[in-house]
Amino acid sequence: MEKKKIDWSNLGFDYQKTEYRYVADFKDGKWNEGGLTTDANVVINECAGVLQYAQTVFEGLKAYTTEDGRIVTFRPDLNAERMEASAARLEMPVFPKERFVEAVKETVKANAAFVPPYGTGATLYIRPYMFGTNSVIGVKPADEYQFRVFTTPVGPYFKGGIKPLTIRVCDFDRAAPRGTGHIKAGLNYAMSLHAIVDAHNQGYDENMYLDAATRTKVEETGGANFLFVTKDQKIVTPKSDSILPSITRRSLIYVAQKYLGMEAEEREITLEEVYDFAECGLCGTAAVISPVGKIVDHGKEICFPSGMSEMGPVTKKLYDTLTGIQMGRIEAPEGWIQEIK
Ligand SMILES: Cc1ncc(COP(=O)(O)O)c(C=O)c1O
């Protein structure tokens, strides 16, 4: 298979159409067989549930070329499980886990020419999603749905070197207690757009959301979970029912404990405590870990000892180990790496 002529190292995080995408439809209480199509357009009724009442959920994961030239994905079964939870919370039918993983693999395989070569830093981003397609005018769940998977090559996250982020404590809330913060639904992202545009206008890279009930505990940003390193070299990460259970964060905790022999704990973390931490990072599929150099809390600055020019030493070790596992340089735990053949 010949790779597409793409300037891999200069790709950004933008949509670029690839050849194939997967589509399956849910009608009369069941999913049809589904399959690949070259048609990138979705045509639905003007009154479709997704357009009127935002009944849509999605996932995000990547395919990589390993050092020895295999194409692999990272823990797609966990994305499948999370999408099941997201769908159930929005009264959508579940797209079965095994079919989800198969659909992801089939789509990546069909677009193998777009999977960036090893060493370019680029990857193939995979976007599974599902939405209500039939008309609903009274507020209720749709009866018909479409599940799709498309892919798009994306560039290295840290183009031109790693730059620690500056984030602000946000005055908007992301998720209510007992709300939908723990699922990957479009609605959580629509409401975060104003907060992120405002943060960028004020010169910040990201928002730190606090728990909506007490506004004392750290939740997450609009697109990543927090991970902190304490001064005595422990990893701590916020525990909350209203944050998205990041697959990267769960994997990093395992890596810290089992590969690096560190203590790692998921627990409630107050904003007050953050002043004493040694390192801070944001974890998610996009960057694995982006270092945070500074958090600004209404004029008060929390400056991490790791500084504004590089990743902290523990963050770097975690980053190197997890990316090593993903790229096939370090042996992966059973089932983490799924090869596409
Ligand atoms: C709100 C939010 N939190 C956390 C994450 C990180 O999750 P993951 O590591 O599964 O990509 C994402 C990105 O998917 C996200 O959108």
Structure description:
The protein is an alpha+beta fold and 341 residues long. The protein has two domains: 8-154, 2-Layer Sandwich (D-amino Acid Aminotransferase, Chain A, domain 1); 165-322, D-amino Acid Aminotransferase, subunit A, domain 2 (D-amino Acid Aminotransferase, Chain A, domain 2, Alpha-Beta Barrel). Helices cover 23% and strands 26% of the residues. The protein is built from eight helices and 17 strands. The protein has helices spanning 49-53, 76-89, 97-110, 186-190, 193-201, 247-259, 271-274, 313-326, and strands at residues 21-27, 30-31, 35-37, 56-58, 61-65, 71-74, 123-132, 145-154, 165-169, 206-208, 225-229, 235-238, 264-267, 279-284, 288-297, 300-303, 337-339. The strands form two sheets. Strands 1, 2, 3, 4, 5, 6, 7, 8 and 17 form a nine-stranded antiparallel β-sheet that branches. Strands 9, 10, 11, 12, 13, 14, 15 and 16 form an eight-stranded mixed β-sheet that branches. A hairpin with a 3-residue loop joins β14 (279-284) and β15. The longest helix is centred in the first third of the chain and has 14 residues, at 76-89. It is globular. It starts with 20 loop residues before the first strand and ends with a strand. Bound molecules: pyridoxal-5'-phosphate (PLP). The site of pyridoxal-5'-phosphate has 13 residues, from α6 and β14.
